[in-house]
Amino acid sequence: MLTLDNHPTGRHFLQIPGPSPVPDRILRAMSLPTIDHRGPEFAVLGRRVLEGIAQVFQTRHPVIIYPASGTGAWEAALANTLSPGDHVLMYETGHFATLWNRMATRLGLKTEFLGLPGIEGWRRGVQAHMIEERLRADREHAIKAVCVVHNETSTGVTSDIAAVRRAIDAAGHPALLMVDSISGLASADYRHDEWGVDVTVSGSQKGLMLPPGISFNAVSPRAIEASKTARLPKSFWAWDEIIEMNKGGYWPYTPNTNLLYGLAESCDMLLSPQHGGLPAVFARHQRWAAGVRAAVNAWGLDIQCADPAVYSPVLTGVMMPEGVDADAVRRVIYERFDCSLGTGLGKVKGRMFRIGHLGDCNDLTLVAAVAGCEMGLKLSGVKLAGSGVQAAMDYFASNAVRLAQLHSG
Amino acid sequence: MLTLDNHPTGRHFLQIPGPSPVPDRILRAMSLPTIDHRGPEFAVLGRRVLEGIAQVFQTRHPVIIYPASGTGAWEAALANTLSPGDHVLMYETGHFATLWNRMATRLGLKTEFLGLPGIEGWRRGVQAHMIEERLRADREHAIKAVCVVHNETSTGVTSDIAAVRRAIDAAGHPALLMVDSISGLASADYRHDEWGVDVTVSGSQKGLMLPPGISFNAVSPRAIEASKTARLPKSFWAWDEIIEMNKGGYWPYTPNTNLLYGLAESCDMLLSPQHGGLPAVFARHQRWAAGVRAAVNAWGLDIQCADPAVYSPVLTGVMMPEGVDADAVRRVIYERFDCSLGTGLGKVKGRMFRIGHLGDCNDLTLVAAVAGCEMGLKLSGVKLAGSGVQAAMDYFASNAVRLAQLHSG
Amino acid sequence: MLTLDNHPTGRHFLQIPGPSPVPDRILRAMSLPTIDHRGPEFAVLGRRVLEGIAQVFQTRHPVIIYPASGTGAWEAALANTLSPGDHVLMYETGHFATLWNRMATRLGLKTEFLGLPGIEGWRRGVQAHMIEERLRADREHAIKAVCVVHNETSTGVTSDIAAVRRAIDAAGHPALLMVDSISGLASADYRHDEWGVDVTVSGSQKGLMLPPGISFNAVSPRAIEASKTARLPKSFWAWDEIIEMNKGGYWPYTPNTNLLYGLAESCDMLLSPQHGGLPAVFARHQRWAAGVRAAVNAWGLDIQCADPAVYSPVLTGVMMPEGVDADAVRRVIYERFDCSLGTGLGKVKGRMFRIGHLGDCNDLTLVAAVAGCEMGLKLSGVKLAGSGVQAAMDYFASNAVRLAQLHSG
Amino acid sequence: MLTLDNHPTGRHFLQIPGPSPVPDRILRAMSLPTIDHRGPEFAVLGRRVLEGIAQVFQTRHPVIIYPASGTGAWEAALANTLSPGDHVLMYETGHFATLWNRMATRLGLKTEFLGLPGIEGWRRGVQAHMIEERLRADREHAIKAVCVVHNETSTGVTSDIAAVRRAIDAAGHPALLMVDSISGLASADYRHDEWGVDVTVSGSQKGLMLPPGISFNAVSPRAIEASKTARLPKSFWAWDEIIEMNKGGYWPYTPNTNLLYGLAESCDMLLSPQHGGLPAVFARHQRWAAGVRAAVNAWGLDIQCADPAVYSPVLTGVMMPEGVDADAVRRVIYERFDCSLGTGLGKVKGRMFRIGHLGDCNDLTLVAAVAGCEMGLKLSGVKLAGSGVQAAMDYFASNAVRLAQLHSG
Fold this sequence. Notes:
Pfam families (chains A, B, C, D): Aminotran_5 (PF00266)
Binding site for substrate (chains A, B, C, D): 354
Oligomer: homotetramer
Protein name (chains A, B, C, D): Serine--glyoxylate aminotransferase
Domain Aminotransferase class V (chains A, B, C, D): 37-270
Largest sheet of chain A: 7 strands, mixed
Strand order of the largest sheet of chain A: 2-10-9-8-5-3-4
Distance between the termini of chain A: 34 Å
Cofactor (chains A, B, C, D): pyridoxal 5'-phosphate
């Protein structure tokens, strides 16, 4: 019998930037009995989640739901739209941009990895002007796609996607715009249609508050058009049959039924007019992020994101002083305070940790997380300028809103 | 379809002194399918919980498990051992002692309510010497029972039960000793046999971390003897048939099967050698209580319990400054920070609130609760001497222990 | 970690006449986190379940919900309305009537136990004319209450309660009418107000499809009037404080919160207009009962209830041929076919078993249960006249209705 | 709030050949909170499921667990081992073999689809001698892989995989042997190592009793060797990084954590020595299949599988008489008896339905399913030779074993 009891008592504080804590409501929905994915009940479920997720992406076009985790949806975006050897322009915002770039290379695409040099690129958002310049230089339109990450989970930077679209348009270039918003969707404002994105890739285990296991491609008409001639081999990821079957609320192969139950619940929670819908979701993430940043500033530590204009509402990267092993600090916090934080990845391994402030959180959850960090930093011998917890509390109390509303259940 | 969504996001901080937060492990155990309470599987369950709960009471004698909430177990203690008009000496430690006294009166007993005058009695523990004096004066042994509350949930005072036993013995008096440890059991050290208690009353929704709905009478051989001649009417509460049927692992009427599943899990968690068993349970409650008291002291507010020797490890009563409505403060904390605190009861209504620090908690839960209080107090205009959160964190960090241990699941 | 795995695979068929199988929907509702029973959310829940349960009892008067199992509600009915030594007329329909009678005696009431002689009384319903005669003879109105069982769980007989009311009225007698409908409510038609019942006792684990642990007293204005002068000691069971507190949606002591979640869900399911409300609930129980009786008849075995007018829609008692140990048959069915049946109780111990057909069932569940019986009977060497399964299937197929309806979830 | 209530009461009988009913134990395990997939607890879980699933495949070599449904694992098998244009010999056993063949074509492989003509090939197992002949003719070893389906879910035929291995060896041909045992694993005996399979593809929603969403590639050393030079683009499906990371109990990208909880529970259930381990699992599927076939024979209907040597223990295809629309019959059974059956696929659409008898079943579940079929067939006007239910009961009763064992929970 499986138990998870590393800690003797109390609830774990899962403050990594995803998987985010799954609300009981969603776990409960996921425990409904698995049904026949070819039966009449399923079609009702299928249509419901397809409609709900499109609202979350802010799109009127198809959203493909894969019974696979987010990395698969990266592959799907590439495999459906590109052909072997195609030239792709990718922008390096951090570790996940790097992994996507590596995947594209592995799939046989010719990738070009643009970005600011060294660690600097990992502390700022996408520089849209660099993309514009590069595309202007591509007179023959060899570049078939521009790939950027919306919310870079490894750094805590949320790039301006609308600016990237403007850059492509300004260059008069026909490249597709493909965006990873795996950790941005349903936490940071994201507008697939309005921003002119061709393929948005996302996953379940972040703002959607689900366990990992389903992922998404939101696709524009231009992307669908491109998929008709793209020659990378594709079958499992192929959009065509899925879009066709989705019309009836079904999928061509076995969908991830119980996670779809969870997705139906998640959409209900996110879109609920009672609680303010998506604008309220985005606002509370911004609020939490501001509270956590107030804490980091009070400690006198650096926020990894060096440009306040692109601070992430989803997570905050906290740089350690010279000589401090961030993973040792994380271990103290995990072992003594039952709180998980994100590790530093790639270029910043050991030099920072990441505090997730997304999904099923509230002010006290984040004060607790910040307190765990503060105690752990002190126990690890890190000198702090002041109390981050106090700063976070000051922020939250000064900006407190009346949250509780009585409903008739 | 029932939902509980007063707050739009995140997990509620249930910091009342019971019901305490029910761990997922227990909720999960409670969702096992209800079985035939006369079938062979049930006997295995029945014997298992009877054995486990006896260990929790630290007794080798029978523990009666009622399919009823704690107030019923109060009635059971009286109805099994006493006759109409019997003289009972009860001690006023607070609101729950008062309610038990009222119940005894309603059941037709002649109660005498001993205690210190006014609110003073609600800030100190049982004065064993007063009991001793009263019993010495009762030369004819008219008094049939002495009733005291171990952990007074309305005040945050944990009385010395062994001292009460010594007082009765010193007076050479044959009265039964009946103790309410509804909110003490499985949080504060409690020794039914060693302390010579005749009937201990307890309930499920406190240290046992279960929802309300089952309750207990741990009974001594003397109490069983008394029950044979006691003449208060009794049927549902009658010990005799239950003790008889329990020998086979069954109950005379339908038991509360799904809560018994929870109780089996609860005993596993509390008694687990891996996590240190009951001594570790008691130690962590003491630790949490010390952290919370550090916070109240830092705020410059009074702890309701005026005698440090009997501070409760389960809850702390926080007195408000003159003119502050404690319930208005609680409302702010509930509405803005999604945290429930205990209200002031009876004599202290509106003058204090109670912070529960029991059951399925950890350091960060309590820092969060203290933070909710601190922000709510400030928003309510209460002047605080200093930061309670800082004090709690200092206490927890200075006393941090390595909690996490890897198990093979 | 608790598991229930007596059988290696598949779902247990719990075909006892209660506890009935708890639907996943209810188990899921019961797993919501326990909340503060004094907080604002609770009042919403409290009012909701009080309103729902009154509809189920078909009453406009108060229904008391006890955090205790059904036997407690028997005691509550007596303790609230009667005084020590009061004369009570009880009618013997079977084992549970006998137990209620024994309880009344134990509580100090003077009980008179009316009924047909020997086992005959256990095969027929309440003989209202006998009650009428007895009451007419009671010229001084010494009899304070008439107690009958609506659906006798030990036999499978559902008595005509309206006839009992008419008998009391015909005798012009002021005795209160108290009815046990523990296993009748929400399965068999039951009309507290229309039938002029003063106190109806019920429980959670039968037609309400909940685990055991809450129970009910539906009370008439006359019963409430009687409770003001009744002198049996009462405190936990006392209606007065509960009725008073219920006005705000609260209880005077800790309610069984998680079972109330289940009750809210149960009322939603039973009263759902979409599925036809209570009339549809009663109709399907009648239908299941008819199918099961068709099976028993086909086997050539006797149905314990000898009067077709009072066949129970909830359970069917199956008499064994001379020399067959019914419990040995039950054991075979349990061990080999993973199906639990009710044992014979009291006067019919070992001579019959009971098939429950209530709550969360459907046609195939009952065909399966009947098949388990048929195979078990054969393996036990009982000669059967014909196939009961075939007869049940014939009945169900001939009376099949279109059940499935598509909802939008 | 999502509900699934097409039917007003009772539990749905999900008798399709997968997804199979998910046991409560697994749903409960899946509701554990999602944890950090990079943290220390996760490694314990990861190693545990990797070890367990290898035992289920009966292999000592790596098993890749994909966070994707079964169709993805088909693609993974091909993408890891083959290069564009490679010649693959596939054998047509039914609809799923056809779909796999179509996928291979779509991925740019040159497929050759061997099989018996017309519907005949869909009623028999793989003809190993045809494979041997074809391979002997392939003197240049152009054929790189032989792909067969172990348990063809569309027909109810379980082919002899050891015979295919012998055929390849007899031909002295180096082709890889790739087997789809999506619906065979953990229901039908399957021996990856002993039978010399190079890649076995499987999924979660059949014998493993999980919801859909994870899938598997069990791989031989030869398959791993082949993957090093295979040139189909691969990234998400690539074995190399997964095998490397699995050594520590981790995955290169986010795994499907909550389904892995379920998998740990599933392995515990399947491998439990207490219940007989895999041999007992296989034996009970054979037993259920025999009971269901007895029913079909009694009805006088044809079993789709025309060769008794390869009857599937997992499902049985039931051919309808000329002129009967199998899907209309299925609809009657679904709407009136709350039972889902598998539809006829591809060449046999509308001509047959499939009864799943796998996973979390027991004798009574299957009697119920057969009863639903029998009543539905009659209501649809299909003339039956005799009672299938009676035949199934005869079979089960004659072969009854004592299943129940008391455990200490």
